[in-house]
Amino acid sequence: MEAVPRMPMIWLDLKEAGEFAFNAAVKKSAVNVPRDFEGCSTLRKYFGQLHYLQSRIPMGAEQEAAVPIAWTEIFSGKTVTHEDIKYEQACVLYNLGALHSMLGAMDKRVSEECAAGAFTYLRDHFPHSYSVDMSHQILNLNVNLMLGQAQECLLEKSMLDNRKSFLVARISAQVVDYYKEACRALENSETASLLGKIQKDWKKLVQMKIYYFAAVAHLHMGKQAEEQQKFGERVIYFQSALDKLNEAIKLAKGQPETVQEALRFTMDVIGGKYNSAKKDNDFIYHEAVPALDTLQSVKGAPLVKALPVNPTDPAVTGPDIFAKLVPMAAHEASSLYSEEKAKLLRDVMAKIEAKNEVLDQFMDSLQLDPETVDNLDMYSHIPPVLMEKCAALSVRPDTVKNLVQSMQVLSGVFTDVEASLKEIRDLLEEDEAQERKLQELLGKVPASQGSPPPLPPSSPGLAEVSKECSKYLEVHEKASFTNTELHKAMNLHIGNLRLLSGPLDQVRAALPSPTLTEDDKQVLQNLKRILTKVQEMRDQRMSLEQQLRELIQKDDITTSLVTTDRSEMKKLFEEQLKKYDQIKVYLEQNLAAQENVLKALTDANVKYAAVRKALAEVEHKWNTTIQTLVASYEAYEDLMKKSQEGKDFYTDLEAKAAKLLEKARAACQAAEATRQQILEKELKKQPPPRPTAPKPALPKKLPELEGAGGLDTSDLPPLGSLVLPEL
């Protein structure tokens, strides 16, 4: 992109310190630090000196010199107290990570990796039972949030530096991966209960960022395709980027204006790229546009890492102020053993995370949810939205009857209007025929052959009637189309309304339901059984991981190290680490079982494909039927309204047509009288006929007609009021 819009970042509050029987001046300067990098430095020094202190004086849990230490828990605001110096270390380390997250969220966009390092060290080296805000789930969430935001900062710099499109796409894809891990943690019910109301805000922001940075990744994949002159691929990547950005915009409702501006800017860029690429391909290159899932997925490039925390680094902690209290050798040996434990944990976690990644990708590709794999329970009852419509119609038993009667009345008035207009038209045609006979007798027009051209009306009155009749016929013709459409709509909905007004068992019987054979049911049961096995495997893996972490946290061999010769340290480490062998075996068995479980799931899913398709079709029919029935209910009031409008319109038109008919009769009567007078005058002018010659036949006299008044079409109701809504 030509510029780099910024998204807001999540930062964490610092914990507040309470009671700790330590030097007041030291305590005050260590916990009430300024919110800047100098504050980070102070926290690191204090953390390091606490580490030196606890390695020499028995201030741990249930030890002789332990004193109460109080800190405020972030989410509940409660004061939590433990008699363990490690609790003080853990809280200081949490504040170090929180302060780095706060600084990282500022304009300079730095120190997110430091925050991730602090939370990772806290997660891997301290008990998770001290307080809710330092539980394993919360710390895992914090680590992934900080790594995601660190990668986001790197992405911003990469785009500003105009790095290669493919590299930018991979960096952005990794941002998505980190945020997906964070989102999984936020969706965990236990984590959500721990976070409280802040969980919804964080989850909404993280979900929006997942779609936003996925859009950025596909934007740059499209740019790479453009550089490689793969114009079909360019179109599908830009289209995918546009789709994902639209999802991000949906999720961004309620976010600050800065976010909206960033999304609008990005939409301008991606929208422009997509429109240009599609136009070029349609008119110039004509390359086939592949399906997105046929292209290689963008693999993330993790270019950030949690910066390690070393509590004994003199460059950070300063000189050891407790150096003369106890031998440093025991402390150094303990640190070495802690590193061995951490290495063991890293090795095990690398295997677990690799297997989890494969499992997550596999399950995502299948899109199978054990809770909704068949949805059979849905078909056993009428859905609430339909029950609501049935209940509403049950207290209005005449609904269908009223609609039918209304449409019948409309049809009657429509027929009356049509009859009146036809009679007027017949009168005009008969008058024209009589006028033509007179003209032929007078020799003013030749005798008719075939279909003669029409004559002008014989009088101004008839001319006015003819003109007004044409207007009414045009209005009637247009209204006739509307009337027909209204009847079609009524016929479309009347059956559904009768169904909704009837017994509930008939409504239920009208709804689609799946018909499964015994083999189909067996396929479903087998699939659900294997999906349950998958979840059991996940749960066991998480449990074993938690047991391993707790075992490592409680493993303190300082007492043994004090009495062990330096030359025997390695052997002691090896012996002590054997205590983890059994749980490692269980984890290896769990990880090895995954391949067989996924193979069984693959086979079960293949057999499930036909059943899944059938269930999907039935579900589609079910949803369509529900929507159709609900639409018929909602269309009732509109049909009644338009039916009444139609009746009002035709009643008015019928009255005006009746007046016009009276006027036509009077005008035709006057015209006939005039023709009789003209004929009599002409006959007087002619010589008497020979006795043998027959008298000329007089034209057939029109029936006597009554007079009528004028007619005005200006006050007819507009036809637009009868236009039916889309149903």
Automatic annotation (TrEMBL):
**Pro residues bias spans:** 686-697
Taking the record's annotation, the residue ranges forming a coiled coil are 414-444, 527-554
Which compartments does it reside in?
Cytoplasm; Endosome
Chain segments carrying region Disordered: 444-463, 678-727
Q: Which residues form the BRO1 domain?
A: 27-359
- Classify the main location: cytoplasm
CDD domains with a match to the protein in the record:
V_HD-PTP_like (cd09234)
Keyword annotations for this protein, in alphabetical order, are: Coiled coil, Cytoplasm, Endosome
* GO annotation, biological process: early endosome to late endosome transport; endocytic recycling; protein transport to vacuole involved in ubiquitin-dependent protein catabolic process via the multivesicular body sorting pathway
Q: Which InterPro entries match?
A: ALIX_V_dom (IPR025304), BRO1_dom (IPR004328), BRO1_sf (IPR038499)
Name of the featured protein: PTN23 phosphatase
Gene responsible for this protein: Ptpn23
